[in-house]
Amino acid sequence: MVFDNGVIEKVEPRSSYYPRTNVANVTLINIVIAPLPEPDYLLVDKLIAEAYAGGAKVTLTVNKADTGLSVFNYCKENYSNAVDAIFSVSAETGEGIDELVSYLNGNFTAFAGQSAVGKTSLINRIFGTDKAVNSLSEKTLRGRHTTTSREIHFADGLAVIDTPGFSSLELTGVKSDELDKLYKEFTPYVGKCYYIGCSHTAEPDCLIKDAVSSGGISSDRYSRYLSIYKEIKENEKHRY
Predict the structure, then answer these.
(1) Which CATH number does the domain 176-239 belong to among 3.10.350.10, 1.10.40.50, 3.30.420.40, 3.30.565.10?
(2) Between 3.30.450.40, 3.20.20.70, 3.40.50.300, 2.40.50.140, what CATH number should domain 17-162 receive?
(3) Where are the domains of the chain?
(4) Which residue from 179, 183, 203 is spatially nearest to 193, judged by alpha carbons?
(5) Over the stretch 172-220, which tens digit does the pLDDT of each residue have?
(6) Of 131, 160, 172, whose CA–CA distance to 27 is shortest?
(7) Which tens digits make up the pLDDT trace of 42-79?
(8) H or E segment at 120?
(9) Phi and psi (nearest 5°) for 37?
(10) What is the pTM of this model?
């Protein structure tokens, strides 16, 4: 049965909201990166933190697998304990798409990431659509914006929203003393350091710094954690 029209009778409160991507009520944020444009891992880490702050699951999808696996290998090495799942796919060839779709099934998913990484191409491949896609600037190797609005795509068990690409993100809704709780790989150590309220920056006897030294936590992820923590602290000074 197909209904040609309907009436909104009630609007329920949001269960979640993600300011930078400007989407609400999603259960999964699928962050898409690719070998080109060169991944901005600081942006990726901020997106992960924002997603976990909102209560969503997080997947990291490396598109353009047909062009090489170096980015996927980096992600496996540095993000395996930082997100819920990592996928290597190609919107061009269809490689890995079935595995990704199987994971997305049953979720309301937002695709997020830089411009020209292939978010829209992936949606075209998954849903059989033909939306315009981005291209790289030959001069800067950065993406040009094509997606300017948000559109939800539905299929059997799937609900996916495409979001415009972007190149920066400020974690306005995250406090400095909450940041460590948004790092999945920090979970076994948070609250167990020698000093109560340890920020895992300059304090001695820090279990997270010990885990970085022993290889249990990615040193790259930790280095970017320090940058994000510093940025949030600076913003808090100006705010308060």
Answers:
(1) 1.10.40.50
(2) 3.40.50.300
(3) 17-162, 176-239
(4) 203
(5) 889 999 999 999 999 999 999 999 999 999 999 999 999 999 999 999 9
(6) 160
(7) 999 999 999 999 999 999 999 999 999 999 999 999 99
(8) helix 119-127
(9) -65, 155
(10) 0.86
